[in-house]
Queue: 4 jobs
Job 1
Amino acid sequence: MRIIAFVTDTASVTRILAHIGEPTKAPVLSPARDPPAWDEAFDQTPVFDPLAAAPEPTFEFDQTVTW
């Protein structure tokens, strides 16, 4: 499908929409809805992550590469 013209005249658009059986008025906007209601307060305590709490190694590790 190619767009070959734009109809911008309000009266023409209304007549075309009425002819093809489409509504000529824009739908009524609904009001915005409220955010979801939580039954309980949101728990913001951090979750224990065993990988994040891993202790530092007790041995010295040399990361230099000698070729």
Job 2
Amino acid sequence: MRINARLDDTQARMLEYLRAATGQTLSDVVKAAIEHYYTEVSAAPTRATEVLKKTGFIGCGEADPDLSADYKRLLGASLAAKHDHR
């Protein structure tokens, strides 16, 4: 497959630097960049639960073990304590 891409001046300089620094051909630098990007993207979690687990969001909070059953009572008590200063 042949690729035709438009690069701005900064990207062209970066590509030329990579080619010169590695001694690779332009094609080999582009191939390596594609492989690197593919590996990075394909390893990223795709489901919301995976993202939340990976970032540590799931399981980061603490609450009453019966919160799902008692949330109305607990919320009412919390609001009463907060706003009941009469």
Job 3
Amino acid sequence: MHQVRVREMLGFFENELTNNILSFWIPRCEDKVNGGYFNCFDNQGVHLVSQDKYTWSQGRFVWIFSKLASMEGSTFKKALQKQFLMLAKSGRDFLMAHCLIGNNDWRCVFLMDETGRPKHVDGWEQMDMSIYADCFVAAGLGKYAEVAFDRDAYDFTKKLYLSILGRVRQRTFNTLPYPLSQKYRAHGIPMILSNTTKELCGAAARFDPSFTPELKENIKHFTDDILTNFVDENNVLHEIITYDNKPVDGIFGAHANPGHTIEDMWFMMDASDILEDPSYIPKIAAITKKTLEIGWDYEMGGILHFCSPEGGEPTGDGGDAKDEPMFGQLINGWSEKLWWPHSEALYTTLICWQRTGDKCFLDWYKKVFDYTFTTFPNPDREIREWIQICSRNGLPQDKIVALPVKDPYHIMRSYILIIESLYKNTFL
């Protein structure tokens, strides 16, 4: 790629990040009274429909603002970087004060009111509804600890991280809003544990170097688990397998989740770097290529929410899986076009092209780019932040995806990582 083109891309994504995404969230997201962040906006971004705070999103915001305060290749002035770190500290303080079930009970509540009081989600008794929320808190506070040289945040993060690992090993964790029967395993668990562990590595290098070898061993375990147990001989990554690592019959086991797979492939690129083992890269590239081929909607464009291993609508008998909460979403929402798989694909295709030199990834990047920026950015110039969910034909839908929030995490993280990768790339 010509150097001029690289600089044009840098300018494009810096403008998108600063003038279209950050301009929406700052100061909209700030709770200057209680700390933490508001993000229960409707899909159009017009109305704040609730001041509740989902722990899941609070942790993500801490990561984003911490990363913005320290990103490489940034054109942000020091005063703005300081503002980002202050915003990150607001979430750090809020979470460390309120996110745990109780004193020395290292499980995170799922939902809080604006002041930090825990709340029940309608229809559920447990407070620790999703271990994914715990992971996002650990990742966010781990990044903050690294960037802000905050030993207290690191100590909190390490205790939470060890609790997460213990619960996963003992199978005493929840994954709401989509719980899964214990006879199954979900790809999302080793996937998020890999990314969470990676985020602790930077902080451990500052405060706890003796812990780093264990973290690297964990990353290798999670990466090898996915590549060995969830990926078939055709390089299709299956979201669900049995607990004893066997394929699941019918549509529940046969389907793929292109967005999750594409996101995980750059997690694995990170793992390859941390482990200093480039032998993973050909397999990562092959899985990415296969996922784009089967996940792309060749009729209407864009990446499908779910697909069959051959591409297109998932098919097959539901069997016992008909009682699983994810089954309904798989059947009814397979053709939806969501914002987050497309933002993840922008970065993954670019990084795969940079690492392999295979032009097909540059071609996929261009295809994803064209669809993404004609579909998701809000045409209302007072809003600009992305519409999160569209129907198969690309028209906006007023629906909830997992949580009743508007979440900038995938978009901003993708933009940040693209900017960093372009800045560090040898073309410059």
Job 4
Amino acid sequence: MSVICKVDGKEFKDEKSLHFALKSYGLNKVKYYQKYYERRDLLTGELINFKTKEQYLNSDFNDKNNMKKWLKEQPLEKTQEYCKNILIKRKENKGIIYSPSQIELRTIMAPSIIFYNKIFKDYYDICSSIGLENKFIHPNLLNDNFKNKLNKKDTIYVDTREQSWLKFDIPFEIKTLPFGDYACSNDNCSCFIERKSLSDFISTLSVKNYDK
């Protein structure tokens, strides 16, 4: 697809040819896009740092701290609209069908799931409203009869290898678990919980051939 140079209106057969010709104008890609496609940080008003064309044209902030500060300064409705549009653009540009995970949100200029829950009450509800599925919801969780409440008669089992235990309001017992770090004596809560640091979790999801 041909592209038009913003400097003098000259037509080039493709973007690569345009970029190669920028030297003849005394420009490089950074200067070209920052001058003719000016984008500024919504918080500071500074020019958006250029890394790639796609990144530059789709960035409103130079870092997440600026994004967080700006979002906190906006009326709730504007904050909701902006955060919802992040998901919509992600869906349209990348063709995703599942709600972005916490890890995926960390790799792009987007708030955390915790922040989405704060402004929308439920992150997955807002994802569902724009046609994104939640890959990690088990069908049983959608059943109205599903109960996941523990009582004082239940016991939390903590694996012997767990270094720093979480605090609970019900009794817990240290024992060797076949897998996972935590389990429960309640038959209605037949699940095991694997506790990981964020870096370890990211490493686990990054294993080659893992279906994300």
